[in-house]
Amino acid sequence: MQWLKFAFLNTLRNRRRSVVTLTIAAMGTAAMLLAAGFAEFTYESLSESAARNAGHLIVARSEFVEKEEDVPMQYGIQNYAALRKTLLADAEVRYLLPHIQFSGLISNGDKSVVMMGTGIDPDSEFLVKGPFLKITAGGVLSSTRTGAPQVMLGEGLAKSLNAHPGSSLTLLASTSENSLNAVDVEVKGIFSTGIPDYDKRSIYTDIDTAQKVLLSDRISQVGIYLASMELSDTARPRIEKLAGNGFTVQNWQDKAFFYRSVRDLYNRIFGGLGGIIALIVLFVIGNAMSMAVIERTREIGTLRALGTAPAQLTRVFSMEGAILGGLGAVLGGASALLISIFLIFAGIQMPPAPGYSTGYPLQVAINPIIYLIVIALIVALSTLCAMLVSRRSARKPIVEALGHV
Amino acid sequence: MKTPSPVIRLQGMSKTYRMGEVRVHALIEASLAVAPGELLALTGPSGSGKSTLLNLAGLIDTPDAGRYLLDGRDVSQLDEHARTLLRRDAIGFIFQGFNLVPVMTVADNVDYPLFLAGVDAPMRKQRVAEILEKVGLSEQARRRPDALSGGQRQRVAVARALIKRPRLVIADEPTANLDSHTADQIITLIHDLCQVEGTACLVATHDERMTTRCDRIVSMRDGCILADGLDTPHVAHATAA
């Protein structure tokens, strides 16, 4: 305790230098936390979006995952009703997202455009998608429709076909029997995913309509939406067991190519940035401690003469580094927290990412574990730096230290 | 009457420094003994070897040759750790420039050697109060050194050197930066405290006021002891090496 008091008093010797050191440590910590928080928020958003699109776990026949189909639905799931009953037996499964993936043409009579269709269960699909699907006109599909088969069009596709809610269109696709089939549909709504290339081609329709187009009673895959994303890894083996032989269960990350790419890129960018910031903080603290050590060389000699061991002196300097780094880190953490809270309410928008048509909110995740890691890192580096800088001076011959001018 | 055993006994101590290509013989076969309570003045011009002798006696430097007995124990070959412990427990230092720690209060500066020695807090508090009373600085206990006069600072340094009741005090020009009146007070203080505690005191000084109050004077020149106060008339109780 006495050593800590001595170390604290030493940090007050040159207050201006201590304030500068502390401020830079605080700024470095805040920068690291904000960068890490921004990356974390991006990862969370992308992972949530990926999971809400495909499910936390995706069950498909193994051939569907491993091979290319010769005809649509060749490797589809035959008896979805039975599989559904089996999967819903797991307590952590909240929703099932059956999907039929197909492609073909969509026509308004005058113009035909290539489309990529997804047959869905409207009730669970739109409940899970929630805010991750923006409806720009009309409404969403319903499982209780009574009239003509319905579709929802991507914004770009609707524009291309000059279609509006209520418009009649025709879906044309290859069937599972390797023939062509056409079904007349009505536009229920128009959506935007924020990815123009995707919105130019994609449509949603219900499972029945998709099966009617493909002349098949199969589905492509089932997405499983769990109570939370963290359960994915633990639920996977159970779901594999429930699904049985002939099925493959994939994690949402296996299919989230964009998420993985962004994560890899951001990890490199922000990792490098964090490294540079840590180096700057280290350099500043090292410089401040070096100056303190040089200024106090004579005092080091005096304390050594009085019987202070070199290790005790190194400990005091290390504590000084820890105090400066620690106070700076806590101050930086508090600043980062305030900025993060401000951004939640400020509603600042980032420009659209490459390939996207809409921007996204500038927000920074507040992750206590990241805060603890960064603060601990700054304290540890500051302590280590001070220790290394002072080690040599603490072992300097006493006569030499006392004679220092 | 039996002569008391010397606190320190230096026998044929030599020290050579290398300054570039030149070897400087700072101390040449110096032999000396100091008795308990004895105040011994080392005099001589700059470069005569006074400081080297003090450094060796204070265990802050190591000799090239010779023996050093502290309370009868040969300490000339001790490693750094053992020398640190011995300095902590048995040797007090008074420096010309006071060398107080500026961020510590007077009381904390004086307390530091006891804290290092691991004395418990209530005992330390009591001893700090006692010695500050003796040096007349009780009122200044909570002050920082920069709020004190030069004489007061040197009294703090004396208190710091003597609080652990060392066997030996090393004082390097303790009155050099002080006016006559203050110097007298400091000399009296060192003299009285060393006598009371039976502490041997080795003082390097040019100050005549100091030498006249010492029990014995040793003159040095060119690294050699020229004359030992054992042979001088005003020596009270010297002990031969």
What structural keywords apply?
heterodimer, A: alpha+beta, 55% helix, 20% strand, B: alpha/beta, Rossmann fold, 6-stranded mixed β-sheet, 4-stranded antiparallel β-sheet, 7 helices, 34% helix, disordered C terminus
Please give the CATH architecture of the domain at 8-94 and 166-231 in chain B: 3-Layer(aba) Sandwich
Please give the alpha-carbon distance between the first and last residues of chain B.
19 Å
> What top-tier CATH class of the domain at 8-94 and 166-231 in chain B fits best?
Alpha Beta
Estimate the strand proportion of chain B.
Answer: 25-35%
* Tally of helical segments of chain A: 15
Q: What is the name of the CATH topology of the domain at 8-94 and 166-231 in chain B?
A: Rossmann fold
Q: Pair with the most extensive interface?
A: A-B, 21 and 24 residues
Strand order of the largest sheet of chain A: 2-3-8-5-7-6
How many beta-strand runs of chain B? Answer: 10
Q: Indicate the mean pLDDT of chain A.
A: 90
Regions of chain A with pLDDT < 50 over 5+ consecutive residues?
Answer: none
Radius of gyration of chain B, Cα only, in angstroms? 18 Å
Report on the structure:
- The complex is a heterodimer of chains A (405) and B (241).
- Chain A is 55% helix and 20% strand.
- With 405 residues, chain A is α+β, with helices and mostly antiparallel strands.
- Chain A folds into 2 domains: 2-49 and 259-402, no CATH class; 78-219, no CATH class.
- A 6-stranded mixed barrel of chain A has the order 2-3-8-5-7-6, surrounded by 4 helices.
- In chain A, a hairpin with a 5-residue loop joins β6 (168-174) and β7.
- In chain A, α11 crosses α13.
- The two termini of chain A are 31 Å apart.
- Chain B has 241 residues and is α/β, with parallel strands linked by helices.
- Chain B has a domain at 8-94 and 166-231: Rossmann fold (3-Layer(aba) Sandwich), CATH 3.40.50.
- Chain B contains 7 helices and 10 strands.
- In chain B, strands 6-7-8-3-9-10 form a 6-stranded mixed sheet. In chain B, strands 2-1-4-5 form a 4-stranded antiparallel sheet, with helices on one face.
- In chain B, α3 crosses α4 (121-134).
- The chains are: A alpha+beta (405), B alpha/beta (241).
- The A-B interface holds A 2, 6, 9-10, 12-13, 298-299, 302-309, 312, 397-399, 402 and B 55, 58, 60-61, 81, 84-85, 87-89, 91, 93, 95, 99, 101-104, 112-113, 115-117, 160.
